[in-house]
Backbone:
């Protein structure tokens, strides 16, 4: 689930201008989320508090509820969204993508669920897996190569082999791939930040998805001459 960050005072001592998270889209109506938020209760621990928030969507007028782990203002740690009710639906893909690769859709949804559970490394490696499946299912349909040829390539080689003549798709796939490796491998960069990495992965995944979607639309036009 994609979240956006907001700030407000929780009305509690060390939580003055506090960051909290919202799902980017209202889980009730699916519109961009711009709710009014009130703090309904909390439990304080030494470095952080668990806050219970109610958000009212101005479009559908319905509530959604969240619990969030919020660190004191003096801490630099980012807020974590612990629970959301109602859960909201998983991302809907275009029919062309669903038909090309049902397994991609399934993998992507698994990554989304990991993200909702704040399992950021798991989510990143899930998006990396989803990327590999999408590239290979696309190649299976359009490259003219056999399943054996396609499956013999690891993700790194598949990206250079199939995307080499399209810089936008090459770069966007590389970002998902390399950050995905950081989330998966034992050795990772110093100052590695799972939450920041996840945001980067999702931004570049969007670019890649829009390229694949465009290609599919061009390959399957609703009219012909
Ligand atoms: Zn709504």
Residues:
């Amino acid at each position: 689930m994609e979240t956006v960050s907001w700030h407000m005072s929780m009305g509690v001592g060390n939580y003055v201008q506090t960051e909290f998270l919202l799902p980017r889209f209202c889980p009730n109506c699916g519109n961009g989320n711009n709710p009014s938020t009130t703090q309904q209760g909390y439990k304080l621990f030494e470095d952080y508090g668990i806050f219970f928030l109610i958000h009212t969507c101005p479009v559908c007028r319905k509530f959604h509820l969240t619990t969030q782990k919020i660190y004191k203002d003096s801490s630099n740690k980012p807020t974590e969204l612990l629970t959301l009710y109602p859960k909201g639906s998983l991302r809907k893909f275009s029919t062309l993508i669903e038909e090309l690769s049902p397994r991609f859709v399934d993998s992507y949804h698994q990554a989304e669920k990991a993200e909702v559970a704040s399992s950021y490394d798991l989510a990143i490696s899930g998006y990396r897996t989803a990327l590999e499946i999408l590239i290979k299912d696309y190649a299976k349909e359009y490259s003219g190569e056999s399943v054996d040829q396609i499956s013999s390539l690891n993700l790194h080689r598949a990206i250079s082999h199939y995307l080499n003549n399209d810089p936008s798709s090459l770069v966007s796939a590389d970002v998902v791939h390399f950050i995905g490796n950081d989330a998966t491998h034992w050795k990772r960069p110093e100052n590695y930040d799972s939450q920041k990495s996840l945001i980067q992965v999702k931004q570049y995944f969007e670019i890649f998805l829009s390229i694949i979607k465009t290609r599919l639309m061009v390959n399957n036009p609703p009219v012909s001459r």
About this structure: Residues 4 and 123 are 17 Å apart (CA to CA). The mean pLDDT is 91. The chain is about 45% helix and 20% strand.
